[in-house]
Specification:
It is built from nine helices and twelve strands. By secondary structure, it is an alpha/beta fold.
């Protein structure tokens, strides 16, 4: 018989960790509002107990909540959203919002706890993870529905999610930012071109914004692998034309862009720093508004930024400060 332990939260990640010979199961439990726990589950009785829990000193975790919501894409597909906020942040259309997304390589945006993220929630920001097509959240079809010649679904899903959280009252539509990294940085570049009016600020971390030029070069170490995700524009004219129609660098146009921060690393071998550097320059040339467009380069880091826990927190703090400043959400709403 299948065993289904019961948990008090709706949205969580859990992985088994026991040897088969044990009469109990140890489970690694994690959620957006609960730090890592190791649980002991008794299949015979259904009881679960906590063996170990990561501490969150000085934080009242009961002040936060994670909620499942759904947006509707242009083609009628329902897109799952995870909404994170303080319980005392009202759903009345006044809160600033941050939409985060990835949507590539069949990677699911699984729930995970981040103490750093709480700093945004404590300033009244509603964090929304948009589980767009191209990821793996809803099975293989969810992935194939957002890759190769269906890649634009990833971008339009994200835009639909942004519009939904405004119309549903989660956020103030005039105070929304967006953030994503690597292939999620490509997503940031695409939605910035397609719907710049929706966002006050965008953070694109190590962004794959010149994808067409990069994978047209078979000498680069990752090009052949990328053809499986995006298609092979060298041998397929349809793939070439389709990629050219959405690749961020190729589609910058004169318009009023939001504040854009492209964050890269000099030693990134997955997404070369030249991609965001080129993108920032062409954005500046086409910016008709007053919002700044900046390039931040980590001189000692790689694709994951600088090494070390504290350096990672510093990087996130910079990204968060950029967003909070443009959302007008720099003050804590509660102690």
């Amino acid at each position: 018989m299948p065993l289904t332990p019961e948990f008090s939260e709706e949205i969580y990640s859990v992985q088994p960790g026991s040897m088969y010979e044990s009469p109990f199961l140890t489970l690694a439990f994690n959620s957006y509002v609960t730090p890592q726990r190791v649980l002991l589950y008794n299949p015979a009785t259904g009881e679960t107990s906590v063996l170990k829990e990561t501490a969150a000193p000085g934080v009242d975790l009961s002040a936060y909540e994670s909620i499942r919501d759904w947006a509707t894409a242009e083609d009628g597909t329902r897109i799952p959203l995870t909404v994170l906020k303080r319980r005392d942040t009202p759903r009345d259309g006044t809160a600033p919002g941050l939409v985060y997304g990835y949507g590539s390589y069949e990677m699911s945006m699984d729930p995970y706890f981040s103490s750093a993220r709480l700093s945004l929630l404590d300033r009244g920001v509603v964090w929304v993870t948009a589980h767009v097509r191209g990821g793996g959240e809803l099975g293989r079809a969810w992935y194939t529905g957002g890759k190769k010649l269906a890649k634009k679904n990833t971008f339009t899903d994200f835009i639909a999610a942004t519009r939904h959280i405004s119309s549903a009252g989660w956020v103030d539509g005039s105070r929304v930012a967006a953030m994503g990294g690597s292939a999620g940085g490509l997503l940031m570049g695409a939605v910035t071109n397609m719907a710049p009016e929706l966002y006050q600020a965008v953070v694109a971390q190590v962004p794959f914004v010149d994808a067409l030029t990069t994978i047209l070069d078979p000498e680069l170490p990752l090009s052949a692998l990328e053809w499986e995700e995006w298609g092979n524009p060298i041998e397929d004219e349809e793939v070439y034309a389709y990629m050219k129609s959405y690749t961020p660098y190729e589609n910058v146009r004169p318009t009023s862009y939001p504040a854009v921060a492209a964050v890269t690393s000099l030693n990134d071998t997955r997404v070369l720093y030249v991609e965001p550097a080129k993108w920032v320059q062409v954005l500046r040339e086409n910016q008709t508004g007053d919002a700044p467009i900046v390039l931040k380069t980590e001189m000692d880091g790689g694709h994951g930024g600088a090494s070390g826990r504290y350096e990672g927190w510093k990087d996130f703090a910079w990204d968060a400060a950029w967003i909070l400043g443009f959302l007008g959400a720099t003050e804590r709403v509660a102690e």
